[in-house]
Write a structure and sequence with these properties.
The complex is a heterodimer of chains A (89) and B (533). Chain A has 89 residues and is mostly helical. Chain A is built from 3 helices and 2 strands, in the order ααββα. Chain A has a two-stranded antiparallel ribbon with strand order 1-2. Chain B has one domain: Sodium/glucose cotransporter, CATH 1.20.1730.10. In chain B, helix 6 packs parallel to helix 14 and helix 6 runs antiparallel to helix 16. The N and C termini of chain B lie far apart (46 Å). Classes of the chains: A mainly alpha (89), B mainly alpha (533). Chains A and B meet through helix 1, helix 2, strand 2 and helix 3 of A and helix 7, helix 11, helix 12, helix 14 and helix 23 of B.
């Protein structure tokens, strides 16, 4: 794999994960804007759907950054190390 | 006052304090808050003295010699981001209207994954001190740097005014100092950090502040949870019992869905265009440390927002919105009042000092990034064409800091009384429209030309500011006109796609052989870090 191919792979993953975060967040915002009664419904006493989903948006932000950093720290960095070794040959 | 005394005071029976709120120590200078405040100033000036002896070159001044570890930078990023507006503002918003505060919290957090996926690593591998370095990598330096400095300085200006106005009002509220004196004290302390200690001192001030703020919020939230058997749902249920189920659902913040979406866009993409945040990625040794630091920062900031949500509801139930709004209509005193209720005057003093430290640290980071645009982009690159002696570079950097600092104090006093949260949301709209699209187009799109990037940044800056001036907030709320020219409070819904479109169209109709020629080399450098400073 070349630096270019690696760049394109990183770019695709970056765009896909950005899209996931945007979908989760704007899904939440659209529900807030257009489905107020749903958001006010209670799951258990005190915990509304809105609060639960809001907390899940935060969890989703954590999860996607974890997925990316894990991929980049292993696959991406290993590939870079390999390419650099090839360069110095 | 020792830590043991503080803890003891913190666990004192609530009954003694329950009558306190209306007769609060807020607004009266008290020994405890003053001691915490002076202790913080002493510690941070000590750090500055230590850092000053290690700050000899421009690389030290702007990028702390690129020696900051991923963990340290994660804390410093969180420190730069968790402003008093988010600590006091969100807790206040939640305490008076419940659920709505969560819209801001989530929006401010989802900006971070975007920074991680799209910006952090290319920035670290391509740039030196400012984001203009990255946009200019394969484009013509002079026009790109001028346009980028315009976007940077406009963003920093709005953000800085917001922080200064917030600082003045909060310190006045909490310590009883006059607004002008408060702004001058903040300006003076901040300039001492930045002028002498540069990025190293600023980074450590951020770290100290982040630990204090997270620790304070955690302690406060734990004390709230102790009242509700450690169960957040019991806290929310108590709030609903007292003030109706409406506090658990979207409320009056959401009147126009398009406004909400526009604000959401500004928050999500604005973080990736904030100059003082972008600048932090130059302080770590490599791209791996840059990405890891964002991971830590996202964890810390997300946790912090969950804590402020608990604090807001805690203040609603234990203090009450009617009492909170007596002290400040915007609800900004919710967290300090809650601290006073739970831990008496000592804990109030501690939280007040933490809020002050927060403002000081954010203002220092902003001033440093404004100074870097003035000296690195405008002076070193434009006036001196990059041929500048190291001694002169440092001198210019310090003069620029002085200019930015004095300007911040003057503007802080001039804009007294402006709505802080609104100014911050505008700074995000400008960052998202002026800086973010050009940055993304220049590093990911081969066809992007010099004039495409320049047009996008200039359009993003002027049109965003223009639409803000024509928005209902200025036209109706401030100038009392019947209607506004532009319907949205936050223009991001129009200006972010607009800036991308302008950048793309102008790139397609202009030619820039050097730009497309340099693309492959840039991609290699950005991926491998081979040309990283």
């Amino acid at each position: 794999m070349s630096y270019h191919a690696l760049h394109h792979r990183r770019w695709r993953i970056a765009i896909a994960l950005t899209a996931v975060v945007a979908a989760v967040y704007f899904g939440f915002i659209l529900l807030v804007a257009y489905a107020k009664p749903v958001m006010g419904r209670l799951v258990v006493p005190g915990l509304s759907v809105g609060i639960l989903l809001g907390a899940l948006v935060i969890v989703a932000a954590w999860a996607t950054t974890w997925v990316y950093v894990r991929w980049a720290n292993t696959h991406f960095d290993n590939e870079i190390t390999r390419l650099k070794a090839e360069d110095s040959k | 006052m020792t830590a043991a005394d503080l803890l003891q005071a913190a666990t004192a029976p609530a009954a003694a304090a329950s009558a306190a709120p209306v007769d609060s120590a807020i607004g009266k200078p008290n020994v405890v808050s003053m001691s915490f405040f002076f202790a913080f100033i002493a510690i941070t000036l000590g750090i500055t003295y230590w850092a000053a002896r290690r700050t000899r070159t421009a690389e030290h001044f702007y990028a702390a010699g690129r020696t900051v570890s991923a963990g340290q930078n994660g804390l410093a990023l969180a420190g730069d981001y968790m402003s008093a507006a988010s600590f006091l503002g969100i807790a206040g918003l939640v305490s008076t209207s419940g659920f709505d505060g969560l819209i801001y919290s989530t929006g401010w957090l989802v900006g971070w994954p975007v920074v991680l996926f799209l910006i952090a690593e290319p920035l670290r591998n391509l740039g030196k001190y400012t984001f203009a370095d990255v946009v200019a990598t394969r484009l013509r330096h002079t026009p790109v740097r001028m346009a980028a400095a315009l976007g940077t300085l406009t963003t920093v200006l709005f953000y800085l005014i917001a922080q200064m106005v917030g600082a003045g009002s909060l310190i006045k509220l909490m310590f009883g100092l006059s607004y002008e004196n408060a702004v001058i004290i903040v300006g003076a302390a901040m300039m001492a950090y930045v002028l002498f200690g540069g990025m190293l001192a600023t980074t450590w001030v951020q770290i100290v502040k982040a630990v204090l703020l997270l620790g304070g919020a955690f302690l406060l939230a734990s004390m709230v949870m102790a009242h509700f058997q450690g169960n957040p749902a019991a806290l929310f249920a108590a709030a609903a019992d007292k003030y109706g189920d409406g506090v658990l659902a979207p409320g009056k913040l959401v009147t126009n869905p398009l406004d909400t979406i526009s604000l959401g866009l500004a928050l999500m993409f604005g973080t990736a265009g904030l100059p003082h945040i972008l600048m932090r990625f130059y302080t770590v040794p490599d791209a791996r440390a840059a990405r890891t630091s964002v991971f830590y920062a996202t964890g810390l900031i997300g946790g912090f927002y969950l804590l402020t949500f608990i604090l807001g509801f805690g203040a609603m139930v234990l203090v009450g919105p009617d009492v909170i709004t007596q002290f400040d209509k915007g609800g900004n005193m919710a967290a300090p009042l809650l601290a006073e209720f739970l831990g008496g005057t000592p804990f109030l003093g501690f939280i007040a000092a933490v809020a002050f430290a927060t403002i000081l640290a954010v203002v220092a980071g902003l001033t440093l990034s404004g100074a870097s645009a003035l000296s690195h982009d405008l002076w070193t690159s434009l006036v001196r064409k990059g041929e500048v002696r190291p001694a002169e570079e440092m001198k210019v950097a310090r003069v620029a800091t002085l200019i930015a600092g004095v300007l911040a104090v003057i503007l802080g006093i001039a804009f007294k009384g402006q709505n802080v949260a609104f100014m911050v949301s505008l700074a995000f709209a400008i960052a998202a429209s002026a800086n973010f699209p050009a940055l993304v187009l220049s590093i990911f799109w081969r066809r992007c030309t010099t004039w495409g990037a320049v047009a996008s940044m200039v359009f993003g800056t002027f049109v965003t500011v223009g639409l803000i001036a024509l928005s209902p907030v200025i036209q109706v709320d401030m100038l009392h006109h019947e209607a506004a020219w532009f319907p949205l409070k936050n223009p991001a819904l129009v200006t972010i796609p607009g800036s991308f479109l302008v950048g793309i169209v102008v790139s397609l109709v202009t030619r820039d052989a050097a730009a497309s020629h340099g693309f492959d080399e840039m991609v290699s450098a950005m991926t491998s870090g081979s040309r990283a400073h």
